[in-house]
């Protein structure tokens, strides 16, 4: 009994120390932050995970060995605290890494480069094949710097001037976004005309401005360089035929990214997703066909999200409704709650589809109705007292992470603008297959809710497919790995083809 009491006391003390780390240090710990005994207890129980010698991150003890979610979720916080601890303010991220942060790139990079006044250069190896490259460059350290996610970066205009031509081919979306974010061309001209950047950078940027339909700005660069004694010849560094971002006054890099992805990907979808049926079925026939697919759809969609559901459970809820009095375990059973919510949401989606089949604009229908789908999906959990009603109103108000994904969903402050931009794109898009495939992926890419994004995303896809008579499409649990891989490929590598081909394959099942 005494041993159990002592163990409980040690764990309690360790968890109190962990709480301080989470509250004050955002889940990043050094050896000095806890006693040896506390650290031992937290490591043994899985609440702490080592990163490098002397550094740790807070974790969920239920995480499996090899689960990368905790590391990816803590990545930028760790980098920020580690660099501050080691270099103070005497560092900055190199131009490439600075631009990725300025332009809202949400992928955890495999490697970033840090420039310091410290004369020792080295590589710091981090978990899951990530790393830091650190080198010294006394000439390039000229504060003040800007701060993004707690990290010191070059300003966006400076970063554009310093990056090499490879950035425009390796990260074309980020390069376009960065150019679009430069409204005051004077800030771009300063490092060019003062000689801090090579004239080749000015030629590259002038060519990029011409390519993105800003000839007047390109002329200013050419003229300003001529006055500084440099005759330059514009050179377009991009390798694609047309820019993906239309001229606009948009300021958000996240919205610009959504618009760019849509513009670049729509042709891929048209080329690789089947055209709609020549003669779509009559509305009631179509709704009956949806009902016929309900049980199989619910089983697969819920299973993809990790719920353990059976055909019997789904069919019982569909036929008999929700009866916690008759089924005493239902009110405490998360799988049954999820199945009941899915049934209710499915009925709500059918109502939206009926509006779409009645020739309402599908983009405007889903813009208005998706909140109702979400609230209905989780209503049984509210009734069971697990969630409060206010938690289903609006989008998430904090960060969320996708298990083992390098993609980090957009920050909460970007959600409203990006969701509006997404629904604008859907409403304006003439092709149903583009609306469905890109609408589905970008909804999941944004990840506007704390939970249920996959299910709502697949409802969204099917509502948009309905607008031109495509059949209700089920993403099968047996193909989950291929599905998740295709989503990751699009989010992290910017390649929509695997997801397009995968959904076309599931369409035919």
Topology:
Elements: H1 2-25, E1 28-30, H2 36-45, E2 48-52, E3 55-58, H3 69-87, E4 91-93, H4 95-102, E5 111-116, E6 122-126, E7 130-136, E8 146-148, E9 151-153, H5 156-162, H6 166-170, H7 172-181, H8 185-193, H9 199-211, H10 215-227, H11 253-272, H12 283-292, H13 294-304, H14 311-320, H15 334-357, H16 362-383, H17 415-428, H18 432-446, H19 453-466, H20 480-493, H21 497-507
Parallel strand pairs: 5-7
Antiparallel strand pairs: 1-3, 2-3, 4-5, 6-7, 8-9
Written account of the structure:
There is one protein chain. This protein is of the alpha+beta class. The chain has 4 domains: 2-62, no CATH class; 81-154, no CATH class; 161-249, no CATH class; 253-507, Fido-like domain (Fic-like fold). Helix content is 56%, strand content 8%. The chain has a 4-stranded mixed beta sheet with strand order 4-5-7-6. Strands 1-3-2 form a 3-stranded antiparallel beta sheet. Strand 6 and strand 7 (130-136) form a beta hairpin. It is flat.
């Amino acid at each position: 009994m005494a041993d159990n009491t002592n163990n409980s006391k040690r764990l309690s003390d360790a968890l109190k120390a962990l709480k301080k780390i989470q509250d004050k240090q955002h889940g990043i710990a050094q050896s000095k932050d806890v006693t040896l005994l506390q650290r031992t207890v937290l490591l043994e129980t899985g609440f702490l995970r080592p990163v490098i010698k002397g550094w740790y991150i807070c974790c969920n003890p239920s995480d499996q060995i090899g689960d990368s979610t905790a590391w990816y979720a803590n990545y930028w916080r760790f980098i920020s605290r580690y660099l501050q601890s080691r270099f103070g303010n005497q560092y900055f991220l190199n131009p490439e890494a600075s631009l990725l942060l300025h332009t809202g790139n949400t992928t955890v990079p495999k490697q970033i480069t840090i420039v310091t006044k410290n004369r020792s250069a080295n590589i710091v190896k981090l978990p899951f094949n990530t790393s830091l490259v650190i080198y010294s460059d006394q000439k390039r350290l000229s504060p003040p710097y800007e701060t993004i996610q707690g990290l010191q970066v070059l300003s966006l205009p400076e970063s554009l001037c310093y990056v090499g031509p490879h950035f425009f081919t390796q990260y074309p979306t980020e390069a376009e976004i960065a150019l679009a974010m430069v409204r005051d061309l004077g800030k771009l001209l300063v490092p060019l005309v003062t000689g801090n950047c090579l004239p080749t950078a000015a030629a590259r940027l002038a060519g990029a401005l011409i390519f993105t339909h800003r000839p007047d700005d390109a002329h200013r660069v050419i003229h300003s360089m001529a006055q500084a004694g440099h005759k330059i010849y514009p050179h377009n560094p991009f390798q694609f035929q047309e820019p993906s971002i239309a001229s606009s006054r948009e300021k958000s890099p996240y919205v610009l990214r959504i618009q760019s992805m849509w513009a670049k990907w729509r042709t891929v979808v048209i080329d690789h997703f089947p055209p709609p049926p020549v003669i779509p079925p009559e509305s009631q026939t179509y709704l009956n066909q949806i009902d016929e697919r309900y049980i199989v759809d619910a089983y697969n969609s819920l299973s993809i999200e990790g719920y353990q559901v059976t055909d019997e459970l789904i069919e019982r809820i569909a036929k008999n409704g929700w009866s916690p009095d008759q089924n005493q375990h239902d009110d405490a059973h998360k799988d049954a709650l999820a199945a009941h919510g899915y049934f209710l949401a499915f009925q709500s989606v059918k109502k939206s589809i009926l509006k779409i089949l009645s020739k309402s604009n599908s983009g405007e229908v889903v813009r208005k109705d998706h909140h109702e789908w979400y609230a209905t999906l989780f209503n049984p959990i509210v009734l069971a007292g697990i969630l409060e009603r206010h938690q289903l109103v609006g989008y998430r108000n904090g960060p969320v992470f996708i298990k083992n994904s390098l993609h980090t969903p957009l920050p909460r402050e970007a959600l409203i603008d990006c969701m509006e931009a997404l629904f604008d794109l859907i409403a304006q898009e003439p092709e149903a297959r583009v609306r469905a495939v890109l609408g589905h992926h970008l909804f999941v890419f944004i990840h506007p809710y704390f939970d249920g994004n996959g299910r709502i995303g697949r409802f969204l896809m099917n509502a948009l497919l309905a607008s031109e008579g495509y059949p209700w499409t089920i993403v099968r649990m047996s193909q989950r790995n291929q599905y998740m891989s295709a989503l990751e490929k699009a989010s992290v590598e910017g390649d929509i083809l695997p997801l397009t081909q995968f959904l076309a394959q599931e369409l035919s099942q």
